[in-house]
Write a structure and sequence with these properties.
Elements (H helix, E strand, L loop, with lengths): L7 E5 L5 H15 L5 E5 H14 L2 H8 L4 E5 L8 H17 L2 E6 L11 H8 L2 E5 L4 H18 L8 H10 L4 H18 L5 H7 L13 H12 L3 H5 L5 H12 L1
Parallel strand pairs: 1-4, 1-5, 2-3, 3-4
Length: 259
């Protein structure tokens, strides 16, 4: 800490593990150096602390807390966007900790140069350390996460039914947006198993996870509606879309409009 990569700037989308990683770093430093003064907080909490210091005229206490840390971890720094007074105080805190040789770790949802309404000097400080992009997990990593999480839940509910590999592979393949959604999907399947006392098959799994999946069969388009309605009423699509008002075309046309 404080030697090579300072500050460490971690950015990435929602649910990819930025907060998880920051806590892991804080916990590891606490093990290495038990006497370390470590503080983790969300950027909104930092803003609240600054406002409270202003209101109570207790900036000496604020500085004593923040300027003497060995490790400061601030999550979602984009929340100080547009807040000039907060940025001013953060800049002083930042410099005080760097001068002291303390480690600063910051996370955000975008790269430093993409942060809007944040002072250029602060963005420059962020870029001066190590900037790390946390990307979406690839299939191999998703499989490992699902396997690990399933194993943990199997140990927790040893008397319950186990989730088969077919379902694990399906979840790993279909849910790609974030680690959080991946873990949420496993929890849903396990909950289904516990409630109904059965392991869901693939069809049931699709129903349980329907709002997380982006399967083709769930996509209803106007063209698909028109095709199916025309097939049912045994007319051509050209007939239905024409300007003709024949009686045999009115019902299918109205049905398609309704659907």
């Amino acid at each position: 800490p404080g030697e090579t990569y300072n500050p460490l700037f971690i950015y990435g989308g929602v649910g990819l593990g930025k907060t998880h990683l920051m806590h892991a770093i804080g916990n590891h430093v606490k093990i290495l150096k038990p006497d370390s003064k470590i503080k983790y907080l969300h950027a909104e909490r930092y803003v609240h602390a600054v406002v409270k210091a202003y209101e109570n005229k207790s900036f000496d206490s604020f500085k004593k807390t923040f300027h003497n840390l060995d490790l400061l971890l601030i999550d979602d720094i984009q929340f100080i966007s547009g807040k000039e007074a907060m940025q001013e105080e953060f800049f002083h805190t930042f410099n005080a900790l760097l001068d002291k040789g303390s480690q600063i770790i910051v996370s955000a949802d975008r790269a430093p140069n993409k942060l809007s309404r944040i002072q250029d000097r602060i963005k420059s400080r962020f870029s001066g350390g190590l900037v790390v992009d946390i990307q979406k997990p690839d299939l191999e990593l998703r499989k490992k996460i699902v396997e690990k999480k399933t194993e943990e839940l199997n140990n927790l509910y040893a008397d319950q039914l186990k989730i088969p590999k077919e379902i694990q592979d399906f979840i790993s393949t279909e849910i790609t947006a974030s680690v959080r959604e991946l873990v949420g999907a496993i929890n849903r399947v396990v909950s289904f198993s516990r409630i109904y006392n059965k392991v869901p098959n693939l069809s049931e799994t699709k129903v349980v996870l329907k709002d997380l999946l982006n399967l083709a069969e769930n996509k209803v388009t106007i063209d698909l509606i028109q095709t199916i309605v025309c097939k049912f009423f045994k007319i051509s699509k050209n007939e239905m879309l024409s300007s003709r008002r024949s009686r045999y075309l009115v019902r299918p046309r109205q049905t398609a409009i309704y659907l």
